[in-house]
Design goal:
Chains A, B: Belongs to the amidase family. Two copies of one chain form a homodimer. Chain A is α/β, with parallel strands linked by helices. Chain A has 18 helices and 15 strands. In chain A, the strands form three sheets. Chain A has an eleven-stranded mixed β-sheet, with helices on both faces. The first copy, chain A, has a two-stranded antiparallel ribbon with strand order 4-5.
Chain lengths: 549, 549
Amino acid sequence: MGDSGTSNVWQEKVSWAQSKRDASLAKVEPQLQGLPSPLPPNSQELPKSVLTTRELEITENYSVTELLDILRQRKISVEEVTRAFLRRAAVAQIATNCLTELLWDEAIARAKHLDALPEPTGMLFGLPISVKEHHGMVGPNVTTSVSFVSWIGKEHGSNLLLDTFWAEGCVFYARTTQPQSLMHLETNSNVYGRTVNPYNRDLTCGGSSGGEAALLGMRGSIFGIGGDIGGSIRCPAAHVGVYGFKPTTKRISATGQLSAMVGKETILSTVGPMAVDRASLSLFMNVALSAQPWRQDPSLTIKPWTPYTFTRPLKIAVQWWDGVVRPHPPMARALREVAAACRNAGMEVVDWDSEALDHRRGWEILSKLYWPDGGREVMGLLEESGEPVLPLTRFIIEEQGVRDLSMHELWEFCAQRDAYRAMYAQAWTATATATAPSSGSSEVDVILCAPSFGAATPHDRSRYWGYTAHWNLLDYPGAVFPVTTVDAAKDPVDATYVPRNEEDRFVHEMYAPERYVDAPVSLQVVGRRQEDEKVLAALGEIERAMGRG
Amino acid sequence: MGDSGTSNVWQEKVSWAQSKRDASLAKVEPQLQGLPSPLPPNSQELPKSVLTTRELEITENYSVTELLDILRQRKISVEEVTRAFLRRAAVAQIATNCLTELLWDEAIARAKHLDALPEPTGMLFGLPISVKEHHGMVGPNVTTSVSFVSWIGKEHGSNLLLDTFWAEGCVFYARTTQPQSLMHLETNSNVYGRTVNPYNRDLTCGGSSGGEAALLGMRGSIFGIGGDIGGSIRCPAAHVGVYGFKPTTKRISATGQLSAMVGKETILSTVGPMAVDRASLSLFMNVALSAQPWRQDPSLTIKPWTPYTFTRPLKIAVQWWDGVVRPHPPMARALREVAAACRNAGMEVVDWDSEALDHRRGWEILSKLYWPDGGREVMGLLEESGEPVLPLTRFIIEEQGVRDLSMHELWEFCAQRDAYRAMYAQAWTATATATAPSSGSSEVDVILCAPSFGAATPHDRSRYWGYTAHWNLLDYPGAVFPVTTVDAAKDPVDATYVPRNEEDRFVHEMYAPERYVDAPVSLQVVGRRQEDEKVLAALGEIERAMGRG
């Protein structure tokens, strides 16, 4: 970083980071020509205007599994694939501002190395993988800021998961944006600015793994690595209509990931996949766990990836709302449509009564446990550089009753968390013996629910976390999948609805179909803690019920 | 508790608790006649002087498995077994002061109920089980003090593990002592006084599950429930020559257990078995996990008990010392003898270099994380009643650099803990690839080590925790098993030894064989985190190498 490391002017540090990003993008060749100006609201057609037919074919025509197949068979070179995704990622950057860095030279060198091997080796041979920036990465010139201005230029070591994927033959080629503090369900920082939704630039891409989402939503990536402590994989994946999976904590190692509040154990984040197809979710888990990461990171659960197979029709509980905030009409429609498809496929569909389970109480516990120091460490990092505190940072730290807890208060909230988790688990267990006729006799397999109160919000409006964060409180695995898009005809405002509380009013008043043009609507499948494999198996069953392969 | 609940005089509360204990013991019939006075140093012959031949047969002639077999076949009534163990427990109480309460009426009523069942049912049908007091227990007259005077008379709910064992047909008949604060490796409290070693009353029974140990060492129980956060199962089991197993945390539920510092998650305690035979350890685990306790307590790891079988000779690493404190001569001899037996049985025996792994550093982290509040909550509980702070309470809270940590200091120590754990795991993993000729090529299966620097210490001298607590820091499962007894001829003082540090000098100077007459000497088998089944399998292999069945 040279002299700027000692500068007090935060903008100078930002300039350094942006210059590094811009220099990495300037390497793209051939350079991108012919993009419209101004950019249209929806970025989906932009790749067609600048990429070659061959590049479009490579980046659009294959699932991850298919691409891996032709790479392994050497029907296509790693370098050609890599160059196509590098160029498409550069288009995505122009469209959505999703990159912190394009690894042009490094990726092409890696691709050439893989192409020169006598035999293709590794479960991810030649696959381009994009990575949320704060996961870090080894390399001679790699720094990781976590979008803190204070940390711009920060050096670090390797990342266990990335090392595993590298050993399996992947190509890292793009690093992606995240919001200030990592704790927004949008993606905006003073370092890289705002990342927007590739379907509608007036909407957020979601967050905190929003750079990944925007890149995936443009097919500038088909397989990415995100992280989730309150919705940070599921929310952005949902907002761009791709797949995302938050596993139970302690299945995937976060060793090497950079973040604030290291050593905090009240609520843990999880690393997980974001991808354009469902099969990639289990591929990610299988590759990560095949390496037995628990032999290096002993905090992990020793359990190989163990695919689950249903031997009877699923019993699905639908959470129509969470008892606090009513979902927007398109989300309610998505729930109805998928529930109907499941029922038509012979599954048992029951209601999940989140109101009785007091999700609001869950949030009161969770929000404190996100910031047991009252946010002092993170606010201190912001103050250190002098960068402005962004509105959604203030929202999550200053508007949720967060406090610097004494040790005994900390224990009290942890005990409340544990009691809440036990109550919830026992409620789930009790579904096996419930006597209500509609509940049947077997235990609920998964909950089908919204991953957000609606489609991607207008910017700076993602102020209700309950639809994702509740499952972080419980440490339940959750997968999101695309269902539909907002449709003005099908999804009118419900003018008769009377909001129940302040958050409900805020959310209700946000909705008008014309604000959400082209916005994807996704759903979430949630399972009991540690039942990761079952969640992905259920997702497969549900999608098959929806007529997907 | 009547009026004494509001009294400020702590001795009144103690009188109430002791009266309750004494009243429970007064129910024994026939009453115990013929015990010598004064009691001899070694209590092992006392049962013979007061129990009937039939009672001695029932309590001495059967392993737990054998007793379960004849109970299930109804070759003996539950009531007869229960009465025999109740009477023997009463002898143990006189000999060692190990009980907080004898459940005379409750146990006999339960036994009659089980005898009246048309068919014997449950994996533990008719088995008398003793329980460390702080685990709590349901019942109309049951209170649990955790040996805090402030909590005398405290009421509480049920205990998930006990409920499971109850559902499997056991009989609870005795509740046992634990030390003030639960954080001594001895057993002494202002509520019940001191529990002594059944082999030598001038020595400790160990702690904190010392009442269980003393009772088991008298065969006043053959199957008990203890808990371990720093050695509290393994140390007392070792000191009386019985078996004990500390599983990985989050395999056995502690739901319903009472203790101070609820909600603290820096270092967790584990519940586990203490028993007179090895097979009981896996029986305990199998019964506990067969109930799928994770369906009620979602903090538990979902993993049934999955017995492990070795398909090649074990690779055992012997920790000859921990790099801080040199074991006493009888312990060093036990290690040599068992290592030789393993080698003779064809196992690969290598050295474990704990000095290089800096166990002292481990203790510096661990001791802080036992008391993140500087011990304020526990000291406050003591102050509340006015009971005196015992020397070993002062030792562990006030002499180890314990402090009331700020939130950021807490995180820093947790991060240090996690880094230490990762370092240790990586060192273990590296044993598979070590190039030293003696290391062979496969990974070390288990570590064979001391469970204490020596046999049971004279009272108030258990001031070095490293041999057990280190494995709590790492969350590694550990089982202890009896090996030998102190032998003045074989175990002379090593007068040439020059202590390395203050603790080493304290420990070295403690040893003289004449202080340890008849004292059992045990060893410990430690495995990697979550490899609980492998540890018990290894224990079986080692004992077979020693010529045991």
